[in-house]
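batch job 7 of whatever, protein = DNA helicase RecQ
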Amino acid sequence: MTDPHQLLRQVFGFDHFRGVQEEVVGRVLAGRPTLAIMPTGAGKSLCYQLPALALAGTALVISPLIALMHDQIRSAEALGIKAASLTSADDRDTVVRRFLNGELDLLYVAPERATTDGFRRLADRVPLSLIAIDEAHCVSEWGHDFRPDYRLLTKLLGDHQEVPRLALTATADPRTRADILVQLGIPEDGLIVSGFDRPNIRYHIRPRDQAGRQVLGLLAERPGPAIVYVSSRKDADSMAATIAASGRAALPYHAGLDSQVRAANQAAFVASEEMVMAATIAFGMGIDKPDVRTVIHAGTPKSIEAYYQETGRAGRDGDPAEAHMLWSAGDFALARQRIEREAAPERQADERARLQSLAALVETTECRRAVLLRHFGETPPPTCGNCDNCLEPPHTVEVTEVARKLLSAAFRTEM
Ligand code: ADP
Ligand code: MG
């Protein structure tokens, strides 16, 4: 086995592991099943890419999105790592041949393929170095993005009991973590949690009155790259047009755009030092742009997990960055109605509680960061000095009473 520090320097070009990376890599190399909870941008990919090089055999990487896999493969190949994916967009015969010949360090597979009998038979014929499960919160119904196919991974894992398994996710509250451990057969002592605090992000949360005017006002004073999250494709198009009309470069991004347009808009944003991306939540996963200075939520996010993940795209370079949420009671009311209409009966109480947690973040007069970090099971200091409530303590009567009234209207009935 090659020395991990040597691989870190020679292949990845880094002098030091960051945060819990060393501990996670060490566990994987020792063959111990592990669940690593690491914030976005913390460097989760390296935690399976490096062991994939150090250990004999091919690493399977379970990953939910084709676009994400292809980005990962491009950056792995740039480092000289032999990686491929088995999706409808790939040349299946070539990939299978390389896999069977043991020519791949990493094979990325979506959960719906990884759980088929055909793939399981294929995987039986090749020595595996490890099985990495990215976005592992998808395995849990408590998580914010449950995908039933993740549940079926137990079959594949069962086929390879002796192969080291590593589950990774950026966002999982304590209950979701416990569930991931059970679902993926990882013992409790396999849980490694790295800190969630993003001290360079300044949090601001206030009610929305006129989204367009408020967003333009914020952007006027904040020149660097920015993402404005909106709730619908239509809003993304119109927000991009409004911003562009104000003289600032802006483009839309949402799942309704042609994939070539999406890729071109993303590339333009990544290359720019001033552009605004007006986007739905389809934008962001796997995008590596370290200098995003501002993230604005012009529509209320779906949950605290979603808010944390989306705001986490700001300031990955460690320089000061800002997150602004413009919420409305109407959004909460709609989210509530949607739960009643669409969530399975046994999920409704949980979904309502999730929404209530977000409402608590919105209406608090306490430190926002403290509320956020406690949600993820941390015990933060009571004040951070870098959020709206710490910087300008709100006048309880004027601000929070309004918030409380609006929210209680949105939550009226038995909540
Ligand atoms: P995550 O999947 O946790 O969001 P990534 O794996 O995409 O994060 O890594 C985020 C960025 O951090 C990448 O640009 C990566 O090259 C960089 N990175 C990872 N590990 C280190 C390290 N030990 N030192 C410096 N930069 C690192
Ligand atoms: Mg990642």
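notes: The first strand starts at residue 34 and ends at 37.
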